[in-house]
Amino acid sequence: MHPPGADTVLVRHGDINTKSTSVKRYMEGLLVEHLEALMADRSVPGSVVREWNRPRIETTEGAVADALDAATDTFGVVSASPCVTVEPAFEPIVDALAEIAPEAYDGGSFAVDARRADKDLPFTSQELAKAGGTAIWEAVEDAFDPTVDLDDPDHTFGVEVRSDAAYLYTDTVAGPGGLPLGSQAPMVALISGGIDSPVAAYEVMRRGSPIVPVYVALGEYGGPDHEARAIETVRSLARYAPTRDLTVYRVPGGDTVSHLAETMEQGRMLSLRRFFYRIAEHVAAKTDAQGIVTGEALGQKSSQTAQNLAVTSRATDLPIHRPLLAMDKETIVERARNIGTYRDSTIPAGCNRIAPDRVETNGRVEQLLAVEPDDLYERAASATSEATLIDPRGR
Ligand SMILES: Nc1ncnc2c1ncn2[C@@H]1O[C@H](COP(=O)(O)OP(=O)(O)OP(=O)(O)O)[C@@H](O)[C@H]1O
User: Fold this and answer.
1) C-alpha of residue 192 to centroid of ligand 1, in Å
2) Which of 192, 294, 303 best tests ligand 1's pocket when mutated (most atoms within 8 Å of CB)?
3) Residue of the nearest CA to atom 19 in ligand 1?
4) For 60-89, how does the pLDDT look when each residue is reduced to its tens digit (9 = 90+)?
5) How far is the CA of 198 from the centre of ligand 1 (A)?
6) Do residues 219 and 251 lie in contact, with contact meaning Cβ atoms separated by under 8 Å?
7) What pLDDT shows up at residue 354?
8) Span 152-181, pLDDT tens digits
9) 219 a known binding residue?
10) What is the Å distance from ligand 1's center to 242 Cα?
11) Is 177 among the annotated ligand-binding positions?
């Protein structure tokens, strides 16, 4: 909940703090740039003040909830707190805590977490916490039976005192964490539109890599709804990256999928993955992307057993990143819901089944190469050259 009168959002980052001063300065700059872009994209009024270590958003009381959402959708942000701003002096801070308390406290234990960025202030954090705690107690004791618990309180009243202002908050909302978008090289994300691949793409974006989305159209095994679903998931991801071009490479793969279905029984699904990776490699070469991201998870499907991943991965020299490798489906679904791609991914796509009745779980590369079409890689190159570009934001 926001303290009444909150018009500022304190923004905290995490991994950026482990960097050297110059890298940290660069990454903080990127984070602020993206936060500003997210606010502009969502028409949130206000500005981001770039203060060393702790940027903040100055906005209006009416827009503080939207500013908080923008902050907690920005990669690199660990948490954010809406706060009221008061004069950085002992009495005004204590008075403001007493004023906030009846709105923010509804019973149970509480604590005051006071910090001073400016160590020259004429009071200590402990003195402030003690006087603030007493003021809060007195403000609520008629209506409640308050207790103080410094280790695990039900309510925390946060106070950050800096040289120009003090910030008071009662809520800390988690952000995505990770690193600012653009702090790592781009990667090609193979997006099927299913539940897993958009989450995998989000995970590398969260660690700083912009994505180049690639969707392989499956012809009679896919269809317009399948394709629309994939584009929709990219559109949802684009909300997190307003400064980035998320144009989808739509690669026509229908002929090859049909050919694999007609000519291969065992290993068909493995060759199809190899075809995808090869396409991704070609797109990476065009876009200077440094890796391939997929939504594969160990053992989730027959094509994702440890043996089969070893066989399929041999199709490319580029590293294949599988951020979901060790995640359970339930966790992935929860993640998809949280990032807002689940609904798109569960739009009925009405596609035909490509998998054969008897699936391969223990592929061997030599055996696969003996039955795989000799021209599989040429097919991938030629399909990529026929790719069309789809801007998901333009739909
Ligand atoms: N038509 C497609 N176009 C682009 N990439 C695809 C396509 N189909 C699958 N992929 C990629 O291959 C991975 C494995 O696909 P598969 O259908 O076996 O797995 P999945 O775990 O169900 O993934 P998803 O839920 O993303 O469809 C996907 O996560 C995705 O990265």
Assistant:
1) 5
2) 192
3) 296
4) 999 999 999 999 999 999 999 999 999 999
5) 9
6) no
7) 83
8) 999 999 999 998 899 999 999 999 999 999
9) no
10) 25
11) no
Q: Is 195 in the pocket of ligand 1 (CB under 6 A)?
A: yes
Task: Determine whether the annotation assigns residue 190 to a binding site.
Answer: yes
Q: Is 209 in the pocket of ligand 1 (CB under 6 A)?
A: no
How many A from CA of 184 to the centre of ligand 1? 24
**Residue 119 contacts by C-beta under 8 Å, 6 or more apart in sequence?**
none
Please compute the mean of the pLDDT values over residues 232-247 and round it to a whole number.
Answer: 96
Pull the structure tokens for residue 76. Answer: 């690199």
Kindly give the distance from the C-alpha atom of residue 345 to the centroid of ligand 1, in angstroms, as a whole number.
11
Question: Quick one: which of 202, 230, 295, 256 has its CA closest to 384?
Answer: 256
Cβ(8)–Cβ(55) under 8 Å? no
Using left for φ > 0, alpha for ψ between -120 and 50, and beta otherwise, residue 223 falls in left
Q: Is 10 annotated as a binding residue?
A: no
Q: Are strands 109-116 and 155-161 parallel, antiparallel or unpaired?
A: parallel
